Amino acid sequence: MEKVALLLHLDYEVTQRFSDANFSVNCGGPQVTSAAGTVFEADYLTTPGVASLKVMNAEKWAVSNVGLLSTRANPTYLETSTKVVGTNTPELFQTARLSAGSLRYYGLGLENGSYTVTLQFAEILFANRSTQTWESLGRRVFDIYIQGHLREKDFDISKEAGGVNIAILKNFSVNVTQNYLEIHLFSGGKGTCCIPNIGDYGPLISALSVVSDFEQTVSGLPPETSTSDNSKTGIIVGVIVAAVVVCLMPIFVIFYFRRKSYADVKELLELRAKTNTFSYAELRSATNDFNPANKLGEGGFGPVYKGVLSDGRVIAVKQLAVASHQGKSQFVTEISTISAIQHRNLVKLYGCCIDRNKRLLVYEYLENKSLDQALFGATRLHLDWGTRFSILLGTARGLAYLHEESRPRFVHRDVKASNILLDAEHCPKISDFGLAKLYEDKKTHITTRVAGTFGYLAPEYAMRGLLTEKADVFGFGVVALEILSGRPNSDDSLDDEQRYLLEWSWYLHENNRTLELVDPTVTAFDETEAFRIIGVAFLCTQASPILRPPMSRVVAMLTGDVEVSAVTSKPSYLTDWNFKDITSSFMDYNDSESKLATEDDNEKDSSSTPFTTTNPNPSPINDTGPIVRDIIEGGK
Predict the structure, then answer these.
(1) In the prediction, which pLDDT does 4 show?
(2) How far apart are the first and last CA of the chain?
(3) pLDDT of residue 394
(4) 526-539 CB burial, b ≥16 within 10 A, e <16
(5) Residue 337 confidence (pLDDT)
(6) Which fold has domain 280-364?
(7) Which H or E element spans position 207?
(8) Is it true that domain 371-575 has CATH number 1.10.510.10?
(9) How many helices (H) does the chain have, and how many strands (E)?
(10) Which amino acids are annotated catalytic?
């Protein structure tokens, strides 16, 4: 009977999640009641970490943060001010919640329909711009997303309000369709970081409220406070007696599955609070059941399909081919960290899907697909010189951001033309960054080989497994030569001397024919920029990682802000290529001797003169031992 009663209570709990869930929050501060009687709930009881979530007030709303105020001695993510902001409820603006990068508030269990979201801001950290002091140079700039849609771009609190310590309210109409609301404030590295104090940057919000525009249909009252208590009691007793006498076992079964379903719903809500999640059914429908006709390509981590969501967004869905060794929570934390890293030259990650052992990632769709297809694929594009230079420079900036500016920093591990995608304006966007962190190292090496990325691997990584950001620099150098020449890093259809792009580039350079490397389909190009690209590529592909420049310096050299250092020495892995391997001659000699001996046995002429021979003199070729060839071909 206790279990049956619990079943009835569980029904009430599930219903209660979708009851009247309007809420207001005093961001970063204690509970406050406004002059109009609205209760703004407390939001100072938790200090989110670098990537964390806190569900508040009986799971009615939640707050999460991604980013770390590492430049502060004691990052609290909460700000206070003693200055009075002139409103009916100034207490709301004496506190605020801050984030280093990405701040989200969630409404959970909302009844579907139209809502009004009110966000309240006041700049309480920066000085007024009219003071003409260095403190007045501080700028706080961030974007406002609601339900995943950009509603305010480059929002500046003090600029919008007309000064500091001035309240500003922003109202947004929102349609809730899945009982779930997301308010996302994202900085993306905009604004200043050290004015007036180190770490005073990122989104800042003082208060928010979410109110429905319709009369909600679920009462939200507990069962014991509703009317007709006696009638309800009689019904419950009748249900319990009938259930115990007639169908005790089916009730236990129903209870088990409902409890499991409720747990699944709760887990899904918690995952969505950390990052955007998609159901497997939703992605299967978007891709027409992963129809081969929608397949965009296949990389080391799995196939990629084009899809269209129900809201009309075009997406690219990657099925991860290698099972992650991490649990759901760890996997989602990693994905939320990656999705928070945004840059003009990085592919945007919308979210993920976890369905039992399935792991899928959802990216933005880019119209012009990958760089390798644009340069030398079956559907190659005509890229003029300006477009090629822009693609190269954008790729360099994206890698510089990953290596030196993002938090956390990333080593891509697999920089190649097929991992650089192009949007409608041919702006390059690096894809698959951060994915190697989701897998064990030994599996990463396997998938890199399977992806066919020979020719891009740095020598120290191919031979010793030594991985630093300089391995990405090497891959970029190869990509630079591919963009310049319009041909892949190796091409078996060409003569031996031209087969490997790096070797051919050095041959032309040493014979004062450097500009012959430029793609002949490019009718007009800037010779100064061409020499600059080749010089940068030679620096990036040096054998020693110490000799390769960091990507920030690569950007400066490409733009002409810094001179390109002269490269006087050919890399050792290319000079070692030019020695004769006698293995083929030795094998040919043994084969010839064995063949003639067999012929003698067949003729059975024991009196013939003993056979003597010299080297059959096969045509010598410039070859290399297995170790050096592994370096050139990236572990082939």
Answers:
(1) 40
(2) 68
(3) 97
(4) eeebbebbbbbbbb
(5) 78
(6) Phosphorylase Kinase; domain 1 (3.30.200)
(7) strand 207-212
(8) yes
(9) 17, 24
(10) 414
